[in-house]
Every structure is written in structure tokens, then in C-alpha cells.
């Protein structure tokens, strides 16, 4: 993504509690002045506990986003943004692929099917969750050839292990899809437009 550095005045401290570079790129590209402070959260434990209780997958994404934001908001002032994204296909939850080969297998599984991305974003202030949003996007992967898949994997490499869907929708990854329903930024991992609207209601960014 080509990112400009034109900052639109921001009247409060904004912290992105995420190690995701694309989330930072999205905020910077939108002209927000922010800091990144990401602290570890035991996502696997939260996920496992909620799955064992039969929680809805969307509630798991929300809980993880809140946990990430709270972890930082308890120690830092300002508006702290936490986010989490879950991929769901055939009723099964998927995490980021650990290796390029796992990404290859995942993409082959996704070929010709539709999956959902459940993207949660939570804003915390002074250790309290004050706003939340969930964006569900639906993406239909075309029946691409093995040759295309290898070309794509060679282009993207390790980047595929940093994305829950084993693809990057921006760039050549767009060639994987025949149809999507939902918002570009939400697919990349941050439901930006509802977040900006919230910041405008709080006077953090100009209306
Ligand atoms: N570049 C890119 N990243 C994507 C895309 N779809 C999902 N992702 C990323 O996949 C990751 C989903 O994993 P999460 O657990 O939500 O976040 P993370 O990367 O572990 O970062 P934390 O917020 O620190 O937990 C996020 O970084 C998303 O931005 C995409 O199309 N393009």
C-alpha cells in the first residue's frame, strides 16, 4: 500500500495496540497521528477457553481485540485501539498459517470456496472498553491453477504467514478472488471507517 504521511490534526493520544504492520499502515495512510504499543496477550488461551464454552466465533474476535487493547490501556493514557481477525470456512476457525507451506495448503483448501473474515476492533480508555465494532466480510476464492498459486507464493513469501487468510488482499492477492462482500480496510484487518466515525464523535479528529 502506498502510504502518505499527511497527518490530519489529532486532538488526543491514539495508541495502536497491535504488532500488525498493515494496521499501522492503514492508520497512517488515513492521516492519523498515533503510537504503536503492543503487549503480549495469551490469545490461544482465550480462544481455547471460549471455544470450550461454545462461544460464537465473532465473540472470540471481539474478546481478543478487547484483551489486546485493555492490556495497554491499563498502563497508558489515551485512546487505545485493539483489533483481531478470525477466518471462518466450513464452520471451522483458522489462524495465521505458521509456514509458507501451510499457507500453500490453506490456499488450496480455500480454492473455489467462500470464507468469512470476522474483524473486531475495540477502543479502550483508562482500562475500560468504550467502543467496539465487528465487521464480517465474505470472500469467494476463484478456482485458480496450481501454476498461479506457485507464482503468487513466490511473490509474497513469508508475508503469507502474517495474514489470517494466508493472502494479502492488497496487491496481486486480488487475483485470488472472484467476489468479495465487505469493506477493503476490514479485509486487511482494521474496520477503519467506523473507527474514524467514532473518533469524530469524540472530537479526536475533525468532522
Ligand atoms: N496485509 C494484509 N494483512 C492481512 C490481510 N487479511 C488479514 N491480515 C492480517 O492478518 C492478521 C490477523 O491476525 P491478528 O491476530 O488479528 O493480528 P496480529 O497480526 O497477530 O497482530 P496483533 O494485533 O498484534 O495481534 C492481522 O495482522 C491482519 O492485518 C490482508 O488482506 N492483507
UniProtKB/TrEMBL annotation:
EC category name: hydrolase
Keyword flag Cytoplasm: yes
Reaction(s) this enzyme catalyzes, per UniProt: a ribonucleoside 5'-triphosphate + H2O = a ribonucleoside 5'-phosphate + diphosphate + H(+); a 2'-deoxyribonucleoside 5'-triphosphate + H2O = a 2'-deoxyribonucleoside 5'-phosphate + diphosphate + H(+)
Matches recorded under InterPro entries: ITPase-like_fam (IPR029001), Maf-like (IPR003697)
SUPFAM superfamilies reported for this sequence: ITPase-like
Active site: 84 (proton acceptor)
UniProt-listed GO biological process terms: nucleotide metabolic process
E.C. number(s) listed in UniProt: 3.6.1.9
Location relative to the cell: Cytoplasm
Keyword annotations: Cytoplasm, Hydrolase, Nucleotide metabolism
Cofactor: a divalent metal cation
Annotated Gene Ontology cellular component terms: cytoplasm
Entry's Gene Ontology molecular function annotations: nucleoside triphosphate diphosphatase activity
Family affiliation: Belongs to the Maf family.
Role description: Nucleoside triphosphate pyrophosphatase. May have a dual role in cell division arrest and in preventing the incorporation of modified nucleotides into cellular nucleic acids.
Name of the molecule in the record: Nucleoside triphosphate pyrophosphatase
Species of origin: Litorimonas taeanensis
Record lineage: Bacteria, Pseudomonadati, Pseudomonadota, Alphaproteobacteria, Maricaulales
Amino acid at each position: 500500500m502506498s502510504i502518505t504521511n499527511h497527518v490530519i490534526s489529532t486532538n488526543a493520544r491514539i495508541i495502536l495496540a497491535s504488532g500488525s504492520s498493515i494496521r499501522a499502515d492503514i492508520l497512517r495512510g488515513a492521516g492519523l497521528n498515533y503510537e504503536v504499543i503492543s503487549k503480549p496477550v495469551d490469545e490461544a488461551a482465550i480462544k481455547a477457553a471460549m471455544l470450550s464454552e461454545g462461544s460464537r466465533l465473532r465473540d472470540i474476535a471481539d474478546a481478543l481485540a478487547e484483551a489486546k487493547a485493555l492490556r495497554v490501556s491499563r498502563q497508558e493514557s489515551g485512546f487505545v485501539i485493539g483489533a483481531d481477525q478470525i477466518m471462518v470456512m466450513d464452520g471451522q476457525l483458522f489462524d495465521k498459517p505458521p509456514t509458507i507451506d501451510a499457507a500453500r495448503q490453506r490456499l488450496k483448501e480455500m480454492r473455489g470456496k467462500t470464507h468469512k473474515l470476522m474483524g473486531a476492533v475495540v477502543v479502550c480508555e483508562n482500562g475500560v472498553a468504550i467502543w467496539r465494532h465487528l465487521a464480517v466480510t465474505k470472500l469467494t476464492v476463484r478456482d485458480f491453477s496450481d501454476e498461479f498459486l506457485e507464482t503468487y507464493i513466490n511473490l509474497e513469501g513469508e508475508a503469507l504467514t502474517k495474514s489470517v487468510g494466508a493472502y494479502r488482499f492488497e496487491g496481486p492477492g486480488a487475483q485470488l478472488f472472484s467476489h468479495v462482500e465487505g469493506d477493503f480496510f476490514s479485509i486487511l484487518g482494521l474496520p477503519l471507517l467506523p473507527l474514524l466515525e467514532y473518533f469524530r464523535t469524540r472530537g479526536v479528529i475533525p468532522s
